[in-house]
Amino acid sequence: MLVVLALAQLGLTGLGIDVIRNHVLRGSSPVHWPFGWTPTNWSPLGQVALIAGTILGLALIHAALRFRAAITVSNLVLRIVVQLRTEVYDKLQRLSFRFFDANQSGSIINRVAGDVQAVRMFIDGVIIQVLTVTLSLAVYLAYMLSVHVPLTFACLATTPLLWWASVRFSRTVRPAYLRSSELIDRLVLVLSENIQGVPVVKGFGREQLEIEKFTTANRAARDQMHWIFGRISIFQPVMGLLTQINMVVLLAYGGWLVINGQIALGGGLFVFANLLAQFANQISQVTNIANSIQASLTGAERVFEILDAPLEVENPVQSKQPAKSLGTVRFENVSFGYRPEMAVIDEINLDVRPGQCVAVVGATGAGKTTLLSLIPRFYDALAGRVLVDGVDVRDWDLDRLRRSVGLVFQESFLFSNTVASNIAFGQPDASFEQIQRAARIAAADEFICNLPEGYNTVIGEHGCNLSGGQRQRLAIARAILLEPPILILDDALASIDPGTEHEILAAMEAAMRGRTTFVIAHRLSTLRRADMVVVLDHGQIVQRGTHQQLLHGEGHYLASARLQAADAGLAMPAA
Length: 575
Prior knowledge:
Blueprint: H1 2-24, H2 44-94, H3 97-102, H4 105-147, H5 149-155, H6 159-196, H7 198-203, H8 207-259, H9 265-307, E1 329-336, E2 345-352, E3 357-362, H10 368-373, E4 383-388, E5 391-392, H11 398-403, E6 405-408, H12 419-423, H13 432-441, H14 445-449, H15 468-481, E7 486-490, H16 498-512, E8 516-520, H17 524-527, E9 532-537, E10 540-545, H18 547-551, H19 556-568
Parallel strand pairs: 3-8, 3-9, 6-7, 7-8
Antiparallel strand pairs: 1-2, 1-4, 4-5, 9-10
């Protein structure tokens, strides 16, 4: 509709020129009014005024429709972008740990925050522009053919060259845009790591080197965009030159037709010239469209890599689990590797009864954390089965399984929220009494009450205004609040001083009673409390038994205990 209105305004302008020319040059060719109607009783001034008034009316309608179209398109694009960003974030919540292991945080952040905007560019700068250009060129071409067919083909002879240049440009710049996105990922990662690691940077006096590192990444991204802009700078003038050739043809051939009376000056040559100008403008949009296609497709491809990523850990179609979870855990010939050809866990067999406390020890890289991460299905075993209360974890409802397992990670993560909200993260509807009870069990209530606003104190990003031990105690309280039948402490007491560790362990004994607990620990004070100690080495169980039993047999456990005793100045019994 907008194209038709614009064309009507242009045709009426040419008609006005012909009316004036016919009045000034007596005996010139008659004016051809549209629809076969001729205002014979109107004076030339009245005819021009009628044409001008009609043009003004059409211009007002055109402006109103453009405003409405712009609002409609903007609302549509924003709605699609918001929905897409929500879907990407939703998919990220459901992807397995393996996806996050394989993709850097800078790349993921850039895809959600930046590449989603590429979809907006594709809708607004490609789809809508292609429709506009296609409809405009079709209407212009139809009108030009109705005026003079040979002149139309002569003026549009360069169109195949324009198409060839556009295709060649697109094929050239697409790999460059993909490389540009990768360099932006690198830039975001450098920035993110520097912000998160600022204590390390300042502690080692690496500020200048980090500035140079960021500058190098920034310049690499800039140089890549310079290369792309260089190709655009070549492409646009070439397209402009080809369209100007059309105008030269029009002046030569079209002027000859006017002189010989085959087409009118206003309704023919003038309108033709303006249509060619509009045609050139639309062709120039092809340059922007070709550029936008490659930029937006590259970003959209990276977004849909997330949306199309397989969900390696999914809810079963028909879940089954016991009515009440008791906390029995069994590993049956379990093997697992982050890469199939490299096993981290190899044929593990282990039975844990409800209420038992199992300590898992071993050297760094022995597979302790990996083994326990199979219980809440952060990963699925490549071979064998992990059973909770006699049911394969792959048959459990995933949400219920994970809410049955309380987790305290080696590096406690806290959100920028109040202390109470962090403790109640897994159970937002918990009462204040429940929150305080969990904090007391974790020996956190005393320091919380000494905070400026107690449980309503807002914790800084990652808990930056708390000590390592305080953060860990809040993480323990967060796990206890769920009252899960299974509790996993992944070296959770590593950041806590021995005195506080004693307080937490003494307070947690009541909480651990009747609850199956897995503890990754190295301190003898913690290992003594375990009902069973499992020693891992290169993904296999090499020793198992109680603390006292393992002290009376040679192996990794006795060697580690002797080292700790020597550091503490204590005597150890001989094997």
